[in-house]
Automatic annotation (TrEMBL):
This is Efflux ABC transporter, ATP-binding protein. GO terms for molecular function: ATP binding; ATP hydrolysis activity. Belongs to the ABC transporter superfamily. SUPFAM superfamilies: P-loop containing nucleoside triphosphate hydrolases. It comes from uncultured Actinomycetospora sp. Residues 19-252 form the ABC transporter domain. Keywords: ATP-binding, Nucleotide-binding, Transport. It comes from the Bacteria. InterPro entries: AAA+_ATPase, ABC_transporter-like_ATP-bd, ABC_transporter-like_CS, P-loop_NTPase. Gene3D superfamilies: P-loop containing nucleotide triphosphate hydrolases.
Length: 329
């Protein structure tokens, strides 16, 4: 472990961990679906779990919930070992894994009512259960839905229904697998706002997704898994650290290029990417102003999550970028 990794782990441990794994491994025959993973999810985080198809994301999530047993290693969720004491923590967890489950011939309300009545925190008061169902339907944007059977729902509606089911017990921890799958941009923003609101009220969010832009917009921490191994775990702000380059916006880019010369690494219209280490003045912005070149904007260039993930997963994995800006699943 590098000094940077050690510092990050030390920082993480200053906060109470709601999910922690140690050397977690799951083998199917000779193939390791999850390979020696140490995962750390702090209380109050919005943790994005990224990885290409076949990288072990879903297997990892299923082990956290006690649905799949590990070949080796340890899991603690909300301070209790899993699967040994998983029954004690399930009432405090809301989960949606591999898409929402429902009886297709019943309505969404009826499905939620059955789920609430049989859940770990079931309430004997039927009216309170009905009120709770209406509350979560409203929260996910399905409050006006009629009693059509679920088989007539769109994929986006099914995703909303699955999220409603995960919220029934007011969980301390949400474990979600692709919760925005099938939603239009407006729906994606609604779900994102809801998760941020729940997180602000104290719910920790663990979100598995292939949408890099969504992770960047929502999450505070990120873990990247590739070929079963955790190749990155850090705060998102640290992952998207500075590149050492400047973004310079000017209405006269031609003059700026003449002044800065080799220091201009890239140009996109009126925006220049300036790298002073490749030659040119050590203070390029001041150099431009002193020579009469007007500036409209100056910012530090930061790494994108996409660039980091592509570099870490490498060309040998199924991690090519899709047109939507995500990872192939």
């Amino acid at each position: 472990m590098s000094a940077g990794d050690a510092a990050q782990r030390s920082s993480t441990r200053q906060h109470r961990l709601v999910i922690e794994t140690r050397r977690l491994t799951k083998r199917y025959g000779t193939r390791a679906a999850v390979d020696d993973v140490d995962l750390h999810v702090a209380e109050g985080a919005r943790y994005g779990f990224l990885g290409p198809n076949g990288s072990g994301k879903t297997t990892m999530v299923r082990m956290l919930l006690g649905l799949v047993y590990a070949t080796r290693g340890e899991i603690e969720v909300l301070g209790r070992p899993v699967p040994a004491r998983v029954a004690e923590v399930l009432p405090e967890i809301g989960a949606m894994v591999e898409g929402p489950a429902a009886y297709p011939h019943l309505s969404g309300r009826t499905n939620l009512g059955l789920l609430d009545a049989s859940g770990p925190r079931r309430d004997r008061d039927g009216r309170r259960r009905r009120d709770r169902v209406e509350e979560v339907l409203d929260r996910v944007g399905l409050g006006a839905v009629d009693r059509r059977p679920v088989r007539t729902y769109s994929l986006g509606m099914r995703q909303r229904l699955g999220l409603a089911g995960a919220l029934l017990d007011r969980p301390r921890l949400l474990i979600l697998d692709e919760p925005t799958n099938g939603l239009d941009p407006h729906g994606i923003r609604e779900v994102r706002d809801l998760l941020i609101e729940l997180n602000a009220a104290g719910t920790t969010v663990f979100l598995s997704s292939h949408l890099l832009a969504e992770i960047e917009a929502l999450c505070t921490d990120v873990g990247v898994v590739d070929r079963g191994r955790l190749v990155l775990e850090d705060a998102l702000d640290a992952v998207r650290g500075p590149t050492g380059r400047l973004l310079v916006r000017t209405p006269d880019p031609e003059a700026a290029v003449r002044v800065l010369g080799r220091a201009v690494a890239e140009r996109d219209g009126e925006t220049l990417v300036v790298d002073a280490t490749t030659g040119g003045p050590p203070a390029p912005a001041r150099h431009l102003v002193e020579r009469g070149v007007p500036l409209d904007g100056l910012a530090e260039q930061r790494r994108s999550l996409e660039d980091v993930v592509v570099a870490l997963t490498g060309p040998g994995s199924d991690s090519a970028r899709t047109p939507a800006g995500g990872l192939r699943r």
